[in-house]
Amino acid sequence: MADNQPAGTQPHTAAPEQVFDQDGNPKIKDSKGRLVSQKKANKPYLAYQKYREEEAKRLAEKEDRKRIRAEKIARGEEVGPEERDGDSWSLWEVIKTLLVLIGMIALTGQLVTGSLVWGARGRLTNVRSWWPTNKTLFSESQLAKYDGTDPTRGVYLAIDGDVYDVTEGRRIYGPGGSYHSFAGKDAARAYTTGCFQTHLTHDIRGLNEKELKSLAHWKKFFANHEKYRHIGWVQHPPIDPNTPPPVHCDEERAAADRAEAAKAAAARGASQLPVTNTETPHTSKEEL
Q: Is the same domain home to 194 and 135?
């Protein structure tokens, strides 16, 4: 027995000596037993270490409760409802989080670009295009009623069979507008050739590769426009394949078309149909 220690008493353990860093900040042990200074720079690390310790303790207690519950069930004892997993999210929590994120993104866009949708334009930002609408199959005579001359009706136009409501552009497509001749009809050929007098037709036979690409551009223009809506289709009567395609308004292009037609006719052993050009050459086309 140690000298001067009363019988039946536990040996006295001295308190651990407090350790400080060179700046006088106290040091504590982290989860790995290392001494870490409590200076400001280490606060996040220490907070994370504390969180990990508390999380490990919580999980251990949870596993212990699950074990006890399983033992009670095995003995046939009554148990309460199973503990809800705190790590899983409810549907409402997921929705709420998404709404908060969307709101933060929108507000940031308003601050940075002056627009809640970050300056985006097109179908995605046009709320009216989000809901499906009834589509209509027009005849050519039905479509012609929507050329803008009747102020009680909308203004419609078609391009390669697709009909669009362009009422928002009545100033352009209505009477007196620059492109009123396109309203109430399918003038697909004129969009790509620039022949605004003789090519106001859906007949796109004989267009070259460049013109077909131009037509695809205009179809995409209307399909993605933020104000114009696709409302249906127009049904055209079939085109007689024995009739020649419309003559181009540009003399050089018309001559090339006639030469190509002559070659085709010669190959078939047939005579070429006479064609005439009645339109003044059109050399420029404004953007619609």
A: yes
